[in-house]
Amino acid sequence: MKKLLEVNNVSKTYGDYKALNDVSLSINKGSVFGLLGPNGAGKTTLIRIINQITMPDTGSVILDGEPLKPEHIKYIGYLPEERGLYKTMKVGEQALYLAQLKGLSKQEARQRLKYWFDRLDIGDWWDKKIQELSKGMAQKIQFVVTVLHNPKLLIFDEPFSGFDPINANLIKDEILKLRDDGATIIFSTHRMESVEEMCDHIALINRSNKILDGRLVDIKREFKNNTFEIGLITPDHNNTTSLLKEKFEMFPANFKSINDELQYQIKIPDGHSPNELIGYLTSLGQLTHFVEVIPSASEIFIQTIQKN
Amino acid sequence: MNHLLLIMKREYLTKVKNKSFIIMTFLSPLLFVGIFALVAYLSNLNNDTVRTVNVMDESGLFMEEFVSSSQLQYKIVFDTTLDEAKKDAEENQVYGLLYIPKTEDLGALSRGITFYSKDSPSLSTIGSINNMLEKKINALKLREAGIDSEIIKKLHIKISANQETFGGQETSKLGSGLKLAFGGAAGYLLFMFIIIYGNMIMRSVIEEKTSRVIEVIISSVKPRLLLLGKILGTTLAGLTQFMIWVVLIFILMAVASSVFGIDTAAASPSQQMLEQSVDGGAQKMVHDLMLEINNLPILNLIIMFILFFVGGYLLYASLYAAVGAAVDSETDTQQFMMPILMPLMLAVYVGVFTVIDNPHGTVSQVFSYIPFTSPVVMLMRIPFGVPLWQQLISIVILFLTFFGTVWFAAKIYRVGILMYGKKPTYKELFKWLKY
Questions:
Q1: Which end of chain A is more exposed for a tag (fewer CB within 10 A), N or C?
Q2: Residues of B in contact with A85 (CB under 8 A)
Q3: B213 closest CB neighbour out of A76, A78, A84
C-alpha cells in the first residue's frame, strides 16, 4: 500500500510545554485515518504542522514522497475544529475568495461551486450573508469550501459538530465518496461511533505521545480477550449460575431478548476454545445467544488512556 | 503575490461596502461643515442683539465720545441721582449703567468710573468702553501736561524688522505662521489617520479571530502575507475615505458659505491682518505670502510627507494589528493601547510645544530621530528647513524600525490569532516571540 503522508519523529515545544514528543505516523493512500486522543493531547498541534501553520521543532513530514513545502497547501483541505466564516460576507463571494486562496481560478471555482451547491441542494444561498444562515447551514458551506479544490489529503477535525443526524449522515456519505474517488482522509473526533463506522486505521495520542497506532481491526483483535456473551435457558438459573461461576470468570451482560434466560459474559480460560464452551453450555440448557465480545473503539480508547 | 492582491481586494471591498463606513464617509463632512456653519451662524446671531447702555456722566468730559454703534447704543441720562439712575436702568432692563463721577483730578476720576449691570457684562462690551474712556483720559492728561497729542502721534513709530537668511532669502513673520500651518496640518493629519485606520485594522484582525475564520485562512496563506494584505487593504480604504472627505468638505464649505452668506474666513487672523493694513500694506502682504509659499521647500515637503506618512502609518498599523491578534475582543485592547498611544501623543505635544517654540532646538531634533515620534515631529520641522541628511537619517531609522515592528507584529500575530480564551500578559507576549 502506498503512503500518502509520513510524519517522522516530530516534536514541538511551546515555551516550557511539550506539545508533541517524537510522534511518527504513516497514512496509506485512500484510507480514512482516525486521529484520536483526549482534549489537549496534541492532535491539533500535529494537524497544524501538517497544514504548515506551525513548524515542527524537529522531525519531518513527507507528503506523497516530497518533504512538505508551501506549494503543498493546495493539495490539502483542512476543516479546523475552530472554524467559521466571515459573517458579513455573502456565501458565494466568500466561497470564491477561499477557493482562490487555495489556488483555483475564479471560473474554475465558480463551476465547482455550482456543482457542489447543486449536489448539497444549497444553490439558492449564494447571495445570502453568513450571519443569515443557521449554524448547520454555515457548516455545509464550510465543508464545500474545504473539499472544493479536490485535495489529495483531507483533514477533518470534528466534521459533524453542529449537524443534525440527517445532515451528519449526508456529510459522512460525502466523505466516504471522496475517499472512494481517491482522497486520503485524516479524521479527528471524539465521537467514537463515527470512528467505528469510518476509520480503517487509527492512532491514539495522549499527553504529547503516540500510544497506539494500527489498523482498527488489528487493534480490536489485539484488545479482545476471548470473552463471549451468552444467553442460556435452564431449569434452575441459580444452580447453573453457581456452577458456571466455579469454572469461569464471568461478567454481567444485558441484551434484548424475548426469552427469560441467563445473560452473562464469559471469559474462556487460556488453552480452551469457544467450541468447548458451546459444548459445555448446551449440556446445561438451551443456548439462545452466543456472540464474541469485540471491544468498541470507545472501550479501547478509555482502556488505553487509563492504562497510560 | 497573487494571494496578497486577493487579500487586499477583499479587505478593501468589505470595508468600502460596509454600511457604517459609507454612512460615515458621507455624513462626517456634512456634520463637520454643519457644525461649523452653525457656530458661525450662532455667533453672528449673538452679535446681532443691540445692547443699550445708560450713561451718567457727572464730569461732563465724555459727552461727545459716546457714539452709538449698531451693536451698542448709549443713552445719556441727566438730572438724576446715582440711585435713581440705577433703579431706572434696572426697571427698563437696559444692558447696564456707566457711571462717571465728578472729581477734582483725572486720577481720581479714572478710579471712580463704575459699570453697573444685572449680570457681569460681556468682555467685548466692557472692553470697548474701557478702551474709549482710556483714550479720552489719556488725551486729557496730555493736554493737562501741555503736550500736543499730534506730536505724540508723530513720535510714535512701529518697527517690523526685515527678516533675511544668511543666504539672502527674505523671510517674514507671516512665513513662520505659514510654515507652522503646513507642518502642523501634516503632523495632525498623520496623527488622525493613524488613530482612525489603525483601529480599523485592529478591529478587522479581531473580527477574524472572533468569527473563527482565521484558521481556515492561514491553512491557505502565510500569516505574514495576511497581515500585510490586511494593512494595505485597510489603508487603501482609508485613503479613499480621506480623499472623499477632503473633496466633500471643500465643496460643502463653498456651498455653505454662499447659501448662508457666512464669510468662513472672517474669523481667521490672516484676514484681519489684511484688513488692518488695508492701505498700501495689503498688496505687500499678498506679495509676501506668495513669496513665502514659493520659498517653502515644496518638493522636499511633498516627498518627505509621503515617505514619513507611509512609514509612520505602517509602523503604527503593524502594532495595532499585533494588539488585535493578542486579544479576543475589543474590550480587552485597553491594556495594550496605552504603549501605542503614548508615543503618538508625545509626538503631537512635542510638535505643538517645542517645534513651534524652536524648530531646531535639541528636543525637537532628538524627537525627529526617534521613529515613534519622528513622522509627526519631522513633518512639522521640515517647512522650517531641515538639512537633507538629517531627513534621510530619520527616514532610514523609521523604515528600519518599521521592519522591526513588522517582524514583531508578525510573530505576535502568528501565535496570537490561534490563541483563544485568556487575555495574555506582557510576559506571555514576550514568550510568543520565541515560539
A1: N
A2: 211, 213, 216
A3: A84
Whether A69 and A172 map to the same domain: the answer is: yes
Number of domains in chain A: 2
Q: Are residues A201 and A285 in the same domain?
A: no
Using the beta-carbon criterion (under 8 Å), do B6 and A85 form an inter-chain contact? no
Chain B residues closer than 8 Å to A84 by CB: 211-213, 216
B220 vs A48, A88, A101: nearest CB: A101
Q: Which letter, b or e, does each residue of A56-89 get, where b requires 16 or more Cβ atoms within 10 Å of its Cβ? A: beebebebbeeebeeebbbbbbbbbbebbbbbeb
Q: Which of B212, B218, B220 sits opposite A83 (nearest CB)?
A: B212
**Final residue in a domain of this structure, among A187, A216, A245:** A216
Cα separation, B435 vs B423, in Å, equals 18
- A17 and A148 inside one domain: yes
Listed residues A216, A245, A268: the one ending a domain: A216
- Interface predicted TM-score (ipTM) of this complex, two decimals: 0.80
Is A268 domain-assigned? yes
Per-residue pLDDT tens over the stretch A257-266 = 888 888 999 9
Q: What's chain B's length in residues?
A: 435
**CA of A80, closest CA in chain B: separation in Å?**
7
The answer to whether residue A40 is domain-embedded is yes
Instruction: Give the closest residue to B380 by CA, choosing from B299, B292, B293, B309.
Output: B309
Query: In chain B, whose CA is at the least distance from the CA of A52?
Result: B219
Model pLDDT for residues A222-258, shown as the tens digit of each residue? 888 889 999 999 888 888 888 888 888 889 988 888 8
Q: Cβ–Cβ of B212/A98 closer than 8 Å?
A: no
User: Is residue A304, in this structure, part of any structural domain at all?
Assistant: no
3-state secondary structure B2-33: HHHHHHHHHHHHHHHHCHHHHHHHHHHHHHHH
**Residues A121, A251 within the same domain:** no
- CB A89 to CB B6 under 8 A? no
Q: Check if the beta carbon of residue A234 is closer than 8 Å to that of residue A240.
A: yes
List the single residue in B14, B217, B431 with the smallest CB-CB distance to A101: B217
- Are A23 and A153 in the same domain? yes
A230 in the same domain as A174: no
At B98, phi and psi to the nearest 5? -100, 120
Establish if A73 touches chain B: CB-CB under 8 angstroms.
yes
Which amino acid appears at position B126 of this protein? I
